[in-house]
Amino acid sequence: EFKGGTVKVKVNGVEKTVPINETVPATFEDGSTAKTVEGVGTYTVAADGTVTFVPEKSFVGTAPSVRVVREDMNGTKASAIYTPTVTPVKPTATPAETTDIQGKTQTGKPEFTEGDSRVPINEDVPATFDDGSTTKTVEGVGTYTVAADGTVTFVPEKSFVGTAPAVTVVREDKNGTKASATYTPTVTPVTPTATPVETTDIQGATQTGKPVFTEGDSRVPMDDDTPATFEDGSTTKTIPGEGTYTVAPDGTVTFVPEKSFTGTGTGVTVKRVDKNGTPVT
Question: Is the pTM of this model over 0.85?
Answer without folding.
Answer: no
